[in-house]
């Protein structure tokens, strides 16, 4: 099925999509469905349910990534919750379709592969060595159990095999490589002049009436934000007292339960020579490929350098430049035929001809890392820590239930819950809807603080999950509504902003007038001379140039080519308030024929990756069109 769909998306539609160089999730008419716990699932994809819990975690992950990328610039108002939840659900549907297709095509991830993958994740290491203690702690901070994480990792490894299948078999035509490189490596040369905001600022005096007008028209800029001060109690698993005695038998039982984490499976480092052969190749192509790989094998048997032969003859763009080196890999990663051969060879030995879905290979094993099993004695200290961590987790859930009950039964005070569980009542700083220091750094706490039940009714919140082992219950201690500051209180700020706005307007007006002069036939040098400005020459720049204002580079690449009848020029208002006039002089296209073979192969490999991703997206879209997807309506 996958091959049939892929063959249908390899036409002009696929190439048009490739031009966008990216993948975007679209909204597919998703209805209002969030927050309704009466529904059994968030969506059903061909009978496989996407749970409400998975959707919640996907939404939280989306929010966390946005905050991490934007930092202090993050504004929740720019990302409506409903829209982000729709995007999160769409991502989960997309992933489920990929997973189903990957499993249909026979891709799997064994327990050994999952364990091996976990052990190489840097976040789970101490001094380059896997730490089960750190593994458990990091998952708890993410609100995940080990089974949830490993299930998610399994899904990721399976779908990654599907992605790799497209990435490794995509093949851009020479014409495509030529055209994309022509645009990618294109250089442009232009002249420009800049009208400085500072040169006009003195002319931009503002009257009291203009200050008042600016204040009236931009009153939202002079609002003191709504804010709250909170009381709260925290329940943290790591701080709970437990009986610190442990039986040896219990530790050995735990060791057996987690035994996979203490095994480092055998890994092999190999290199290969590939003579590619598309699945739909005719008999002539197959005979040609077989003859070539047979000749290469003969050369190796006669003493030729594997590395040099791979660099010169291999069709794998990802490894050819490295002498065919594929790095270390374990079982369950490579194509089954490739893996069977690689794991049957001795170190330094090369295989015969191996046929896979990608073509014909010759494989050489360059190193072997044998399986390593840590003994019970080696990990005993980790087991002790894991054991007590589990005991604290069990106690934590008991306390959490009690905390939820007491906070609900005594909604106007935290005293009862604090006294019963031995918790301390803390007080926050002032927090706005954008958060604040301390507990205000957690967006879930901030969101809860401004809900009607907590803000207006002054009730205790439900326990808020900070992480898997950290809960907090809050209540509003004090509240100050948002209000517009009077002009007298912000006059200095209003005058400064009004002055800046007027200066920017004057600079823009003068820049637009200068642009009209150029369009009427006045040369840039003449127009600049009359105004005491300097004309600069950019020299040849590329799209990634960092020597000029980034906006100038972006805008000059949007300008149409110069013709005999129409010079290409544009005015650009810069973020600084300056105004630039651009005059495009020359375009120099990238020429792929001037690259050496190695660089051309790198370009082709990059395009192949993009092409593969585009094809995969088209395949998933086709799968979706034929899938049975149910998104329950929100019930009233």
Could you describe the largest sheet, including whether it forms a barrel? Answer: 5 strands, antiparallel
Total domain count: 4
Number of helices: 21
* Whole-angstrom Rg: 32 Å
Q: Report helical residue fraction.
A: 40-55%
The rounded distance between the terminal residues' Cα atoms is: 41 Å
Quaternary:
single chain
Mean pLDDT rating: 85
Kindly report the name of the CATH homologous superfamily of the largest domain: Porin chaperone SurA, peptide-binding domain
- Return the CATH topology of the largest domain: Triger factor/SurA peptide-binding fold
Global geometry: flat
Secondary structure category: alpha+beta
CATH architecture of the largest domain: Orthogonal Bundle
User: What's the number of extended β-strand segments?
Assistant: 22
**What fraction of residues sit in β-strands?**
15-25%
What is the CATH domain class of the largest domain?
A: Mainly Alpha
What layout of secondary structure does this protein have?
Layout: H1 2-8, H2 12-18, E1 43-45, E2 48-50, H3 52-70, H4 81-104, H5 111-119, E3 125-126, E4 129-130, H6 132-141, H7 146-169, H8 174-184, E5 187-195, H9 208-217, E6 223-224, E7 227-236, H10 248-257, E8 263-264, E9 267-276, H11 283-301, H12 306-313, E10 325-329, H13 336-342, E11 354-356, E12 359-369, E13 372-373, H14 380-409, H15 415-421, E14 426-427, E15 431-432, H16 443-449, H17 452-455, E16 464-467, E17 470-480, E18 483-484, H18 487-519, H19 524-530, E19 536-537, H20 550-556, E20 568-573, E21 579-588, H21 597-625, E22 629-630
Antiparallel strand pairs: 1-2, 1-22, 3-4, 5-19, 5-21, 6-18, 7-14, 7-15, 7-17, 8-13, 9-10, 9-12, 11-12, 16-17, 20-21
Helix pairs in contact: 2-21, 3-4, 4-7, 4-21, 7-21, 9-18, 10-14, 14-15
């Amino acid at each position: 099925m996958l091959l049939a769909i892929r063959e249908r998306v390899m036409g002009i539609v696929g190439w048009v999509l490739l031009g966008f160089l990216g993948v975007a999730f679209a909204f597919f008419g998703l209805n209002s469905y969030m927050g309704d716990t009466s529904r059994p699932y968030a969506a059903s994809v061909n009978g496989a349910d996407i749970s409400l819990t998975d959707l919640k975690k996907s939404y939280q992950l989306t929010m966390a990534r946005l905050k991490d990328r934007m930092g202090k610039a993050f504004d929740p108002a720019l990302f409506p919750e409903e829209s982000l939840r729709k995007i999160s659900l769409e991502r989960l549907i997309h992933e489920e379709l990929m997973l189903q297709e990957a499993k249909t095509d026979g891709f799997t991830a064994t327990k050994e592969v999952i364990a091996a993958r976990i052990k190489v994740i840097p976040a789970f290491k101490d001094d380059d060595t896997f730490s089960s203690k750190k593994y458990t702690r990091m998952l708890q901070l993410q609100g995940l159990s080990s089974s949830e994480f490993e299930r998610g990792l399994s899904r990721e490894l399976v779908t990654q095999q599907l992605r790799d299948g497209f990435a490794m078999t995509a093949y851009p035509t020479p014409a495509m490589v030529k055209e994309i490189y022509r645009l990618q490596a294109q250089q442009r040369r232009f002249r420009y002049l800049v009208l400085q905001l500072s040169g006009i600022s003195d002319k931009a005096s503002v009257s009291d009436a203009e200050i008042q007008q600016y204040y009236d028209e931009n009153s939202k800029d002079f609002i003191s934000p709504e804010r709250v001060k909170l009381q709260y109690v925290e329940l943290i698993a790591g701080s709970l007292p437990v009986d610190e005695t442990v039986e040896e038998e219990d530790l050995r039982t735990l060791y057996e339960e987690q035994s996979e984490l203490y095994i480092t499976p055998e890994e092999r480092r190999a290199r290969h020579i590939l003579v590619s052969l598309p699945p739909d190749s005719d008999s002539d192509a197959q005979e040609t490929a077989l003859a070539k790989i047979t000749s290469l094998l003969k050369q190796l048997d006669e003493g030729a350098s594997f590395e040099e032969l791979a660099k010169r003859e291999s069709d794998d763009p990802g490894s050819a430049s490295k002498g065919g080196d594929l790095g270390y890999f374990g079982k369950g990663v490579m194509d089954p035929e490739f893996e069977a051969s690689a794991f049957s060879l001795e170190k330094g030995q090369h295989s015969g001809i191996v046929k896979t879905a990608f073509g014909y290979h010759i494989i050489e094993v360059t190193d072997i890392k044998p399986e390593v099993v840590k003994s019970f004695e080696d990990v005993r200290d980790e087991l002790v820590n894991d054991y007590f961590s589990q005991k604290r987790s069990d106690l934590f859930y008991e306390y959490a239930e009690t905390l939820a009950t007491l906070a609900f039964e005594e909604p106007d005070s935290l005293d009862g819950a604090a006294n019963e569980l031995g918790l301390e009542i803390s007080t926050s700083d002032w927090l706005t809807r954008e958060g604040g220091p301390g507990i205000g750094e957690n967006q879930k706490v901030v969101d809860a603080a401004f809900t009607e039940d907590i803000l207006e009714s002054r009730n205790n919140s439900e326990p808020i999950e900070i992480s898997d082992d950290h809960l907090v219950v809050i209540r509003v201690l004090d509240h100050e509504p948002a209000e517009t500051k009077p002009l007298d209180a912000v006059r200095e700020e209003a005058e400064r902003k009004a002055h800046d706005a007027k200066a920017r307007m004057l600079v823009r007006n003068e820049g637009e007038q200068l642009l009209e002069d150029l369009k009427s036939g006045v040369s840039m040098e003449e127009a600049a001379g009359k105004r005491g400005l300097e004309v600069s020459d950019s020299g040849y720049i590329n799209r990634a140039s960092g020597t000029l204002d980034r906006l100038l580079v972006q805008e000059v690449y949007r300008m149409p080519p110069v013709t005999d009848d129409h010079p290409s020029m544009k005015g650009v208002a810069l973020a600084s308030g300056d105004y630039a006039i651009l005059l495009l002089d020359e375009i120099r296209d990238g020429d792929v024929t001037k690259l050496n073979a190695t660089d051309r192969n790198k370009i082709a490999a990059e395009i192949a990756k993009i092409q593969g991703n585009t094809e995969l997206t088209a395949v998933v879209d086709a799968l979706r069109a034929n899938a049975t997807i149910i998104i329950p309506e929100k019930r009233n």
